[in-house]
């Protein structure tokens, strides 16, 4: 076949394709290839015809042969692009991207519009594949092309905004180059905006700040962006809130941070981050209760600030609200699970605090939960303080061997660490090896003298140590005073100070003050509350006694705080308020229905009120529970005497006299009953 014939055949093939006679076109092309196997156009036409006849493999092979023959010719590359675009196979996307890249190279000098169209297609392909770095690089090429052509500022602004949209999901992948591209896009979009200040520009700035807040290493840029936006929009709180949240998450509590918190509260008194900042300031100033109040309120208004939970837990631990601290830790850990960029450092700190709180709650179950929390801490095995906490958890669980093993390892590897010696002290104290415990706690105090707990346990060690120290509690007193001075919320220190002043010094007034303080710090401490009330009554200070009892009974749920109900009931009984006495004594019995003494007191209250039948039942119930309560038996007989049941009363009086011949009240009652019967017989 001559060249002239080949050209004619190719023309016939082109006409057949135009008329959609693809099989006919294939015949002409094959005829050409028999004589000229490297004919570029023949291969292109075969690719096109095969594609239309739904023979993709043949089409692909033909196009590839064509590009091998003429790699800088457009037709075959365009055909390949069309073929791959129509394909439903996902594995051709990589090939399609290569084809688009080649087309960009070919269009660059010949057809700018087609270059832009292909660029858009390539970017969309990369976006679907989540290849955000390639998206960024390709889109920047498009913007550069537009800049070289002298595009208007408004058009460039839209292109930069489009780039932001394309990359907005890339923050999940944490690719540094892509992050920089996204930040660059924001900066250019902001600089090319027309209406400044304006609503669109303001929203763009908000998105920029939100984007920067997800990148921990962009702290400086974030602070600059917030300050710039505040300068442009001084009445908008968003940039200030974002800056405050940044300071919270980064743990930066500088003067600048405190200034931002204060300024935010001035602009919006209900701002969550501002209230949290106020709480942190209170924490730093050791105003722990105010800190807890502000942090709790701020956290209700603020989402996405797990670090603030850490400060709340810290404040709760400072005032020994350990159960509240555990609940807050659990909420903090839930917040970390849903946070966009959770901080491992904050999570580890919260887990450590949770374990410490559980250890102070005490008990095997709490210890088990503490061990589980410690297991979640990353690199816990390399942190000696965490290991010491684990040792205490094992000790609380009764696993003495495991606790001792950790203690020995810590003393060898970290002999200068206070926690190493403290753990050894806790182990000796639990085994009542007080002399060894004393040495360990003294070593711990030598290394960390400001820890109140070490002084507390050294005081307890001296308190229980030996006969000599039992007689002279001076050493124990010194340590309890130091513990109370270092930690004014340490209730147990005040309780033992109360024990000292009551039992050793004989100073009831000072003892009462210490017990009262201990109870105010820990309202679950029944021992301190009971003694504080009893001493107040002994000292004639009924107002203090009642104030303590009222606090307890107001908060008590059914069946609890028996000691408080009983004491207040007895007070009302002595002060001739029988109806109130009945209510309180009934509440006390709900907590312990088998308390014979309480039933006896309730009988007295009913009797004072004039409720004779219920008084009789109460006295009988008391004597049933404790037959040795002669007074209850006597009072039951006395009530029957009042009710005119003289024979029953006589029987009961006689039973009392059988066991106690000189029990005067029974003798008197017996005589009165005989006299009444004699009168009725006249």
UniProtKB/TrEMBL annotation:
Q: Which InterPro entries match?
A: Ski3/TTC37 (IPR039226), TPR-like_helical_dom_sf (IPR011990), TPR_rpt (IPR019734)
Say yes or no: keyword RNA-binding present: no
TPR repeats span 40-73, 562-595, 596-629
For this protein, the record's SUPFAM superfamilies field holds: TPR-like
**Keyword set, alphabetical order:** Coiled coil, Repeat, TPR repeat
**Which GO annotations describe the biological process of this protein?**
RNA catabolic process
A GO cellular component entry from the record: Ski complex
Pfam families referenced in this protein's UniProt entry, alphabetically: TPR_16
- Parts forming coiled coils: 3-39
Question: PANTHER family from the entry?
Answer: SUPERKILLER 3 PROTEIN-RELATED, SUPERKILLER COMPLEX PROTEIN 3
What is the protein named?
Answer: TTC37 protein
């Amino acid at each position: 076949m001559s060249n002239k014939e080949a050209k004619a055949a190719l023309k016939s093939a082109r006409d057949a394709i135009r008329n959609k006679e693809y099989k006919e076109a294939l015949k002409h092309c094959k005829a050409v290839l028999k004589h000229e196997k490297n004919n570029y156009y023949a291969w292109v036409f075969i690719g096109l015809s095969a594609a239309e006849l739904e023979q993709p493999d043949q089409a692909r092979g033909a196009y590839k042969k064509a590009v091998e023959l003429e790699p800088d010719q457009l037709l075959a590359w365009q055909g390949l692009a069309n073929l791959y675009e129509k394909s439903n196979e996902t594995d051709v996307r990589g090939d399609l991207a290569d084809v688009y890249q080649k087309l960009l190279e070919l269009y660059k000098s010949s057809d700018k519009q087609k270059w832009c169209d292909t660029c858009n297609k390539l970017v969309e392909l990369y976006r679907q594949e989540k290849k955000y770095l390639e998206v960024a690089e390709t889109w920047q090429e498009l913007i550069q092309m537009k800049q070289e052509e002298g595009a208007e500022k408004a058009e460039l602004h839209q292109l930069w905004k489009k780039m932001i949209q394309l990359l907005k999901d890339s923050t999940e992948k944490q690719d540094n180059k892509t992050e920089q591209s996204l930040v660059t896009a924001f900066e250019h979009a902001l600089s090319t905006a027309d209406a400044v200040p304006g609503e669109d520009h303001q929203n763009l700035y908000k998105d920029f700040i939100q984007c920067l807040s997800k990148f921990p290493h962009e702290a400086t840029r974030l602070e600059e962006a917030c300050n710039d936006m505040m300068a442009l929009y001084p009445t908008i709180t968003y940039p200030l809130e974002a800056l405050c949240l940044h300071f919270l998450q980064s743990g930066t509590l500088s003067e600048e941070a405190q200034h931002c918190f204060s300024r935010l509260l001035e602009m919006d008194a209900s701002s969550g981050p501002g209230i949290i900042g106020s709480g942190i300031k209170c924490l730093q100033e050791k105003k722990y209760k105010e800190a807890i109040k502000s942090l709790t309120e701020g956290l209700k208004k603020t989402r996405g600030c797990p670090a603030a939970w850490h400060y709340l837990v810290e404040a709760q631990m400072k005032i020994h609200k350990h159960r509240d601290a555990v609940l807050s830790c659990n909420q903090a850990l839930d917040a970390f699970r849903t946070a966009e960029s959770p901080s491992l450092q904050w999570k580890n700190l919260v887990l450590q605090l949770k374990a410490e709180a559980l250890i102070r709650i005490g008990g095997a179950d709490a210890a088990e939960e503490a061990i589980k929390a410690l297991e979640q801490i990353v690199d816990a095995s390399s942190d000696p303080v965490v290991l010491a906490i684990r040792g205490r958890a094992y000790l609380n669980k009764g696993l003495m061997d495991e606790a001792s093993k950790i203690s020995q390892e810590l003393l060898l590897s970290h002999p200068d660490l206070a926690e190493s010696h403290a753990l050894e002290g806790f182990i000796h104290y639990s085994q009542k090896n007080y002399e060894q415990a004393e040495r360990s706690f003294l070593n711990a105090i030598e290394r960390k003298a400001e820890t109140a707990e070490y002084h507390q346990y050294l005081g307890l060690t001296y308190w229980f140590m030996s006969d000599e120290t039992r007689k002279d509690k001076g050493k124990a007193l010194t340590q309890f005073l130091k513990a109370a001075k270092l930690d004014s919320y340490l209730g147990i220190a005040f309780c033992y100070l109360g024990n000292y002043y009551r039992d050793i010094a004989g100073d009831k007034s000072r003892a009462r003050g210490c017990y009262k303080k201990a109870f105010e710090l820990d309202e679950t401490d029944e021992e301190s509350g009971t003694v504080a009330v009893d001493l107040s009554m002994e000292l004639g200070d009924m107002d203090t006694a009642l104030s303590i009892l009222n606090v307890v009974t107001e908060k008590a749920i059914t069946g609890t705080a028996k000691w408080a109900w009983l004491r207040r009931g007895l007070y009302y009984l002595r002060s001739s308020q029988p109806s109130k006495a009945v209510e309180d004594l009934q509440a006390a019995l709900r907590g312990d229905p088998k308390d014979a003494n309480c039933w006896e007191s309730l009988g007295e209250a009913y009797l004072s009120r004039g409720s004779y039948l219920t008084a009789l039942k109460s006295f009988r119930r008391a004597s049933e529970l404790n037959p040795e309560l002669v007074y209850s038996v006597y009072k039951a007989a006395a009530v029957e005497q009042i009710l005119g049941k003289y024979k029953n009363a006589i029987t009961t009086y006689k039973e009392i006299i059988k066991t106690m011949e000189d029990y005067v009240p029974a003798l008197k009652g017996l005589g009165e009953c005989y006299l009444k019967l004699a009168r009725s017989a006249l």
